[in-house]
Amino acid sequence: xxxxxxxxxxxxRDASQADIEKAYxxxxxxxxxxxxxxxxxxxxxxxxxxxxxxxxxxxxKRELYDRYGSSFEDVARAGGHPGxxxxxxxxxxxxxxxxxxxxxxDFSQIFGGAGGAGGDPSSxxxxxxxxTGGGAGARRRRAPASExxxxxxxxxxxxxxxxxTGGQTQxxxxxxxxxxxxxxxxxxxIDTGKKIRLRGQGQAGPGGQGDLLITVHVTPHPWFTRKxxxxxxxxxxxxxxxxxxxxxxxxxxxxxxxxxLPPGSSSGRKLRIKGHGIEAKNxxxxxxxxxxxxxxxxxxxxxxxxxxxxxDQQHPTQPRDHLQW
Length: 325
Known about the structure:
Helix content: 25-40%
Number of helices: 9
CATH superfamily of the largest domain: DnaJ domain
Largest sheet: 4 strands, mixed
Strand content: 15-25%
């Protein structure tokens, strides 16, 4: 099914030329591949927007499109419309409607002036030629474009604590036959499998350096585990502390916190410390859950065992009543 150019630009069929141009500028600024390096679909979306504007931004092409739909190019080549100019070509790349785009349109306006923020005034024309071929459907001959070097990939293993709180670490790699050490900033809250991009640290190319993509692996912690942005820590307590209650110091990413352990706490009981979990950028912090683990002495003398038997007889319980498959 042929694409609806009006839907592509997000405008109504009776939209004015000014509205069409405004919609195109907004989408071009949003979808330009150079501004979305991590979005693999950006280039395709950008080309579709460019193709739609190449038709709807030109009054004559738009009239043909409104009347004949997706067949408007064939009609124009056959001379089926008084306003068409059949037979005119834009060069070896294929047929055109006479012109590289809507008359008088300046692509640099999309990015706030000639060349954007501190760029070469001709740079955006080159970029548009590179990604769109200069016209609808990318039919025209593409101008040669300088390309950046390829991206490199590497891996890094970081401690659990560094992944939680963020900070700096070093990565050693062989690049171009040379042994190099790079400083890597670890964002707070990163997890195993996530990637960090170091721009300009990839392979060299005619248009500049590619990027270095680093896959993160977080080493396990002996006491802490992570679920989303929440942290869980096992807190050993003595039999007496569990029985009569106690004040227990618990380490957290924000420092040591003293918990009040209620009397009669069994192993597995969880105490919540609000806001002391993972604190990633632009997200509310997670919580920390301290799980009680009652620790018995390794070997009890006969008198101690007899005392425990008396306690068990005086306070009978059935701890495995609800245990089932």
